[in-house]
Task: structure prediction
Amino acid sequence: MHEHPLDRWRHEHVYLGASHARNERRVRWVVGLTLAMMVGEIVAGSVFGSMALLADGWHMATHAGALSISAAAYAFARRRAHDPRYAFGTGKVGDLAGFASAVLLAGVACLIGYEGVVRLLSPAAIRFDEAIWVAVLGLAVNLASALLLGDDHGDHDHEHEHPAAPAPASREAEARAQAARRSHHDHNLRSAYLHVLADALTSVFAIVALCAGKYLGWGFLDPICGVVGAAVILRWSIGLLRETAAVLLDADPDPRIGVAIRDRLESADGDRIVDLHVWRVGPGHFAAIVSLVTHEPRDPEHYKRQLAGVERLAHVTVEVQRCPESLPT
Result:
């Protein structure tokens, strides 16, 4: 087959995370574990007449649904990665799934908190033995799921792969630096990890509260732990909502990339950047549109070659305008 004359200038827009296939497999395994646990608890609760088992089973169903969204997002992004209808590929599908999962996680936290307040005001009899068994079994499943997802839940930022930045001089600067590091995460995997972590946290709180209730008679501790756990989960979900919303709205993902672009393109010869847009198109992949004015315009490929050293800058568009007037330094 002969190469088309324009093929040398064409390129694909596949911006999936470096660990996309591996993360997809891990999330599928976690979905399977969660579904098995959910079915087992619902069946056991129906057979043994345990409301604790039934309630936890349906609680697991909400997490299974959220995790299924993550798995479906990985599959969709992979299958449609080469679809020309998506201008910058399907790398942000995971961020959309992460946003949806964060909304579900926040809803679950609110329900847990509401139930905790209701039980605190109107205490109910607790079948401690069965409830402790359910909590321990749930914790084991969630720990297994956390191991499957691994401790590298995202395409992390590595210092040697990014432009150096000055040390933060304030708390606000430190917050921006942390946000920049998080901009490289796989938010789809992170949302799945947070769902597993939320379940594990509720299981730990439940075990502590139930043991205190059984052996010390502190039945009031069960709803209090539920409310505290719900508050922690809600905070996690709000953090994930902020991070994924920033990606979906094309917020500046990492100010260091903009600094690196300016350092490479602006020169003493009079080249000046008048408009710069940088945004994330997938985990570890960023795009930029640069509008540059200069006394002596060169081919856009010249400026693109100058940006070749900016790691993870996957798609660059350069607009060059001649400016006969003197430019400020």
Notes: Residues 209 and 222 are 5 Å apart (CA to CA). The chain has two domains: 7-248, 255-322. The domain at 7-248 is CATH 1.20.1510.10 (Alpha-lytic protease prodomain-like).
